[in-house]
Design brief:
The chain is an all-beta fold and about 70 residues long. Helices cover about 0% and strands about 25% of the residues.
Length: about 70
């Protein structure tokens, strides 16, 4: 990740309201052209980091992900 907006980074957490949509932006360096599917995994030294497997790559490389259970 090279940048984020409207959310804080570890170890300071952003309080995300339950049962409400919360939109934030994560910006990463580019994927290789050969990449077709990837996983997004929050690797932190605590429990409950998010993990979204098998995200199919889009032509725009813009993704709208739902982190709800």
């Amino acid at each position: 990740m090279i940048h984020y907006q409207k959310i804080s980074g570890f170890p300071v957490w952003t309080k995300v309201p339950s049962n409400k949509e919360y939109i934030f932006t994560l910006i990463f360096s580019g994927l290789p052209k050969s990449c077709k599917v990837f996983d997004l995994h929050e690797v932190i030294p605590e429990n409950n980091g998010f993990y979204i497997p098998a995200i199919v790559r889009t032509k725009s490389d813009v993704y709208f992900l739902d982190f709800t259970d």
